[in-house]
Amino acid sequence: METSSDNNLKSKRIVFVTVGTTSFDSLVRSVDTEQVKEELSKKGYTHLVIQMGRGSYIPKKSSGEDGSLVVDYFTFSSSIADYLTSASLVISHAGSGSIFETLRLRKPLIVVVNEDLMDNHQSELAEELAERKHLFCAHPQTLYQVIQSLELESIIPYHPGDATPVAKLINRHLGFPVD
């Protein structure tokens, strides 16, 4: 028989979803589907925390008492660093700040491209990093399929480049001493 203390010993596996400071209702709506939540649960995730930004779509909260995913949401936080740190998987909009902060923490990342943006330069970054196997790239309508076929072992850790050669070149060009 399982006791409540046994339940507390089970490790939390948190999926953190962030849309940044704007609105990305199609991402929030997509992650809030029963299909996506069931797939996340099948993969062993226990909690879904959604940062929904300025969006108008309100996801369904769940306490997880019926064995399903615990679901919670909020609009904004002064810092999402703690959420990123505690996450086992991050699902994010395609903003470069969110992408690189997550990669720096070496968290598995699914970037969902917002097709509603006019000049969608963010998709180029997400697609390039996905091609290099640093993250997975999805669209709101393909998120379920990406989660279903998720192979975290295929991720190659991202190593930020060394800016020293560029700084030396700039210093030399400006006439500053180069060490």
From TrEMBL:
Gene Ontology MF annotations: hexosyltransferase activity
Recorded superkingdom: Eukaryota
A Pfam family: Glyco_tran_28_C
Gene3D superfamilies linked: Glycogen Phosphorylase B
Domain Glycosyl transferase family 28 C-terminal residue range list: 14-158
Gene Ontology cellular-component terms listed: UDP-N-acetylglucosamine transferase complex
Gene Ontology biological process terms from the UniProt entry: dolichol-linked oligosaccharide biosynthetic process
Protein name: Glycosyl transferase family 28 C-terminal domain-containing protein
Source species of the chain: Lactuca saligna
